[in-house]
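Q: Given only this backbone (734 positions), what sequence would you predict?
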């Protein structure tokens, strides 16, 4: 067996160590399942084996199924006739369930010594064991079933064993929300039988095997088994299921079939034997894998993101380098956030501001953030103090003399950025790269102040830096491969996802975001009620409405960017028809957004009170009155999704984004484009280019040029092409 070792001790207990060669984490693949079948057969048939303990030879127990293998297999099966394809897909899905069922019914006691993270199939291995032990001194040891977050469901019995073990109420957040739980929570809920120091983990597992209080039988296989807290026909269970469906509808708006299928699995499976229940699970898994939502989410949220996180866009001519020290210029909200996430990754920071007071304030932001982590038990005080000590607040540019990289994060003002570039380049080493955190100003124009424009690059973070995972790396006209590689080194080191975009005003994400926000304001100006705009947008799958997002971004920042763009473009600037709304909100009413408690929404000072739409928004409707006839929610949903997707397509046409993976991942992580679609380009591919173009033309005729179809997309519609079909092979080779 390639993936497991098998050692029998003097008591006849086999220690099985999961340790796949050449991999940093154990994952469940086809060859792992083959080995697992062999192991189970050996446990059952070898009289010298009295029981077994399964553990891991790596830091984590098991990270779950190999989704790249699963996705590839599904793609190959899709080429077969429908009936044959469905039968083979079910067979593949059911294999894992059969494997784990064979383990728990082998007639001998089996324990899982869960030494680290156990997610998805890794957790399901543990659930198929009769006993489970976790360490008390490893905070990284957690249990979870995150499948729903990438559009699938647990396929190794997770929807059946977990509710039978802890009850429907405790299982729901783990199954439906991907919630991870630590050792103490698992013990309190009855998922694990013991929590002990790591050094005693295997010994305790062996002890439970020797005691064998369950007599090598799972609770659900006992004659008088009852669901903890009651099954679906118990009053408590009936109440839970009665509430679950409308709650799920409220939170997902029916966009995520995985959660709905999980609920069906639990409901139907709870009424039959385990042998029948796992068949139900596999049938729903098969059904789910045939849906575009699942395929798109697996591709974008898992596979593509994983490739980008590993530096997948690094030029072939460059090798991975080490970023040890970074200069951050500008200690405001963005600069302080960049400093915070950088020191968390072990990078020393020189934090420069115009005044020492400003620099100290930036460091305090980081210290407050670490203090919050201490309060929540996420980090020790000692670690927090160490991280704070890695930030040097200063006004002295001379301290940049040994940095590997500079990130400039000052106000969106070209003259100021030019000045700072010259001051920094007088000091930084020859090999250091200069990055600007601009959100809109073209990098090529900023690089004119640089003595070495080939080492000048855009590194655009999103706010708040601590929470937002996307970073746009912007290539100026003269930016070289070395600068790109170093920027990728930095972004991946701080555990953010980089996408590489070409230079243009607003780059990729902000161009699409402004279409999203702009369409919201277009609708407000048409007399559509703001509550309908906001709620229909959330029904489309966006996390927040366009008016709410504008509040978060800040209305006064929007005005500043408009003014800067006007100054840069001069007579070439084309004003938006909704600009007067923004200017009136800021300059007449001083409504800046959430930052000052009033924007399109009012934000009550009392903690815990919900925000409410500003009652005076009707003034922006024609004649100061909302339209008597309001559009359907579906019409608004189309307008919201299509305007963003069209802008993403324009960016592909212009070469601003060249890789559909980056366009999709960037759209989901950057501004929350409906994740169930797989991203802006996957949305077009799923609708079909021809059908998408037809609907876009209808929207353009009704609402304006923001829905104009780019020539590239019309060509693709005529040829029956998809973005991944046309650009995917090139992207994969990049």
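A: Predicted residues:
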């Amino acid at each position: 067996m390639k993936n497991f070792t098998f050692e029998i001790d003097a008591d006849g207990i086999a220690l099985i160590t999961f340790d796949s060669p050449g991999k940093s984490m154990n994952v469940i693949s086809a060859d792992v399942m083959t080995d697992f079948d062999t192991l189970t057969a050996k446990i059952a048939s070898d009289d010298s084996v009295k029981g077994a303990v399964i553990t891991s030879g790596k830091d984590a127990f098991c990270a779950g199924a190999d989704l790249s293998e699963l996705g590839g297999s599904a793609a190959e099966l899709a080429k077969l006739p429908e009936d044959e394809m469905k039968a083979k897909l079910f067979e593949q899905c059911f294999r894992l369930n059969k494997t784990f069922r064979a383990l728990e019914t082998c007639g001998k006691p089996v324990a899982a010594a869960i030494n680290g993270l156990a997610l998805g199939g890794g957790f399901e291995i543990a659930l198929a064991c009769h006993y489970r032990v976790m360490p008390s001194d490893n905070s990284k040891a957690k249990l979870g079933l995150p499948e729903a977050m990438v559009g699938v469901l647990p396929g190794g019995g997770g929807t059946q064993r977990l509710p039978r073990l802890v009850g429907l109420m405790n299982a729901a957040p783990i199954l439906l929300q991907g919630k991870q739980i630590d050792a103490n929570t698992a013990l309190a809920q009855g998922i694990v039988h013991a929590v002990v120091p790591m050094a005693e983990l295997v010994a305790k597992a062996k002890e439970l095997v020797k005691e064998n209080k369950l007599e090598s039988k799972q609770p659900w296989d006992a004659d008088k088994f009852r669901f903890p807290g009651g099954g679906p026909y118990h009053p408590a269970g009936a109440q839970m299921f009665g509430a679950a469906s409308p709650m799920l509808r409220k939170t997902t708006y029916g966009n995520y079939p995985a959660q709905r299928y999980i609920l069906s699995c639990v409901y139907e499976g709870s009424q039959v034997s385990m042998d029948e229940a796992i068949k139900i699970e596999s049938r729903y898994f098969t059904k789910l894998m045939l849906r575009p939502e699942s395929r798109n989410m697996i591709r974008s949220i898992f596979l593509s993101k994983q490739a980008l996180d590993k530096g997948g866009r690094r030029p072939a001519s460059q090798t991975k380098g080490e970023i040890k020290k970074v200069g951050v210029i500008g200690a405001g909200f963005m600069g302080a956030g960049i400093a915070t996430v950088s020191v968390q990754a072990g990078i020393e920071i020189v934090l420069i501001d115009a005044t020492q007071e400003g620099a100290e304030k930036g460091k305090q932001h980081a210290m407050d953030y670490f203090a919050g982590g201490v309060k929540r038990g996420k980090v020790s005080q000692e670690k927090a103090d160490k991280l704070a000590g890695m930030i040097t607040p200063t006004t002295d540019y001379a301290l940049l003399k040994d940095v590997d990289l500079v990130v400039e994060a000052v106000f969106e003002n070209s003259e100021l950025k030019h000045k700072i570039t010259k001051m920094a380049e007088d000091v930084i080493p020859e090999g250091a790269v200069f990055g600007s955190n601009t959100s809109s100003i073209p990098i090529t124009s900023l690089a004119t102040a640089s003595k070495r424009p080939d080492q000048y690059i855009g590194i655009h973070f999103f706010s708040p830096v601590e929470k937002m995972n996307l970073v746009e790396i912007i290539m100026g006209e003269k930016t070289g491969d070395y600068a790109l590689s170093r920027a990728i080194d930095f972004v991946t080191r701080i555990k953010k996802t980089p996408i590489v975009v070409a230079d243009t005003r607003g780059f990729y994400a902000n161009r699409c975001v402004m279409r999203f926000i702009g369409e919201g304001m277009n609708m407000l100006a048409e007399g559509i009620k703001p509550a309908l705009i906001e709620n229909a947008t959330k029904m489309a799958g966006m996390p927040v409405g366009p008016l709410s997002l504008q509040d978060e971004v800040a209305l006064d920042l929007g005005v500043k960017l408009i003014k800067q763009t006007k100054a840069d473009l001069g007579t070439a600037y084309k004003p938006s028809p909704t600009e007067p709304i923004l200017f009136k909100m800021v300059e007449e009413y001083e409504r800046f957004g959430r930052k000052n408690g009033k924007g399109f929404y009012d934000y009550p000072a009392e903690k815990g009170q919900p925000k409410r739409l500003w009652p005076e928004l009707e003034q922006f409707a024609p004649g100061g009155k909302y339209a008597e006839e309001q559009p359907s929610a579906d019409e608004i949903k189309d307008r919201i999704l299509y305007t963003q997707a069209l802008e993403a397509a324009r960016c592909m046409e212009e070469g601003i984004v060249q890789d559909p993976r980056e366009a999709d991942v960037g759209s989901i992580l950057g501004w929350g484009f409906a994740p169930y679609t797989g991203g802006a380009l996957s949305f077009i591919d799923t609708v079909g280019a021809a059908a998408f173009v037809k609907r876009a033309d209808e929207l353009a005729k009704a609402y304006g040029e923001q829905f104009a179809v780019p020539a590239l997309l019309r060509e693709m519609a005529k040829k029956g092409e998809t973005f991944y079909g046309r650009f995917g092979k090139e992207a994969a080779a990049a």
